Amino acid sequence: MSADPSPAPPFRKRVYHSLFEGTEHHGRLSKTNLVLVVVILAAITVSIIGTEPTIAHRHHDLLIGAEMGFGVIFLAEYCMRLWSVAERPGAGSAMAKRLHYAITPLALIDLFVVVISLIPFFIGNGAILRVVRLARLSALVKFNRFSHAVEEISDVIWERRYELAVTIGLGWVVLLFGATALYWAEGEVQPDKFGSIPRALWWAIVTLTTVGYGDVVPITPLGKVLASFVALSGIVLVAMPAGIMAAAFSESMQKRREREIAAHIEAEVERKVDAEVDRLVKEEEQRKR
Question: Using CA atoms, how far apart are residues 37 and 29, in angstroms rounded to an integer?
Fold first, then answer.
């Protein structure tokens, strides 16, 4: 006789798997989280469109209804996560697990988004509403829970923190050198722009970051020579952290692919071993008969 099918898991366990574990295995999203991603994108789009006065006045009721709907969805998501997190493996009561989850960064972000989404319906102050509308863009942070790439980038930054700290320190040295050099070369000629090191810092920052607004420029031959060296140093300083991050991210992706391949091979070997064991057991049973 064939074995009875295993009973369906309780509803709360299914909700937990859909909201939490559905984002942790092989980078795939559960259908629930996929819907949440679409809702987040829609909420952000509505928040952006709502800042355009012509559209906001013409479709005021529609935008308000959409924002209320998004707020209710985010509130339901937060409540379901808080309720289903009791199924998380590990010691502790259901209430302890919920309290522990409620103070995690992602749960606090979810709660903040819920409050920001619903607060306009309880406050009528126009200035506050404009600030709240901009704050709704914080829903972007909710994507952290749906993206393994964000985790990879965070790990890369942490692994390369010392190299990045060195480049930042070197950048500050070059920044102060450039400001001091231009203060010495241009301070008397352009006291309003280079009359002090703090004033010259604006030019040094704009030059080192290769932005180059052009509102402050050296006019003496010596100042131009020094500015050329500072500008070339800026190109190098921008390239250094970019190269460090690119190499580290590539290495991290390669390690992840290797882990996935190893896990696939291990699963395939286990499957073949199980199949071979089943075959040998069946042969042994046939010989006994």
Answer: 9
Residue 42 to residue 7: CA distance in whole angstroms: 37
Rg (CA), the chain: 29
CA distances from 150 to 142, 144, 231 (A): 11, 6, 32
Q: What is the pLDDT of residues 89-126, one digit of tens each?
A: 877 788 888 898 888 887 888 888 788 777 766 655 44
Find where tokens 């709360």 sit. 12
pTM of the model: 0.54
Q: Is-same-fold flag (11-146; 159-284)? A: no
Specify the CATH class of 11-146 in words.
mainly alpha
- As a whole number of angstroms, the distance between CA 122 and CA 61 comes to 16
The neighbour count for residue 275, using CB atoms within 10 Å, is 10
- Cα angle 80, 83, 84 (rounded to 5 degrees) comes to 80
Instruction: Give the class (CATH, top level) of 159-284.
Output: mainly alpha
One-letter amino acid for residue 136 of the chain:
R
Structural domain boundaries of the chain? 11-146, 159-284
User: Could you tell me the two tokens for 180?
Assistant: 């001091």
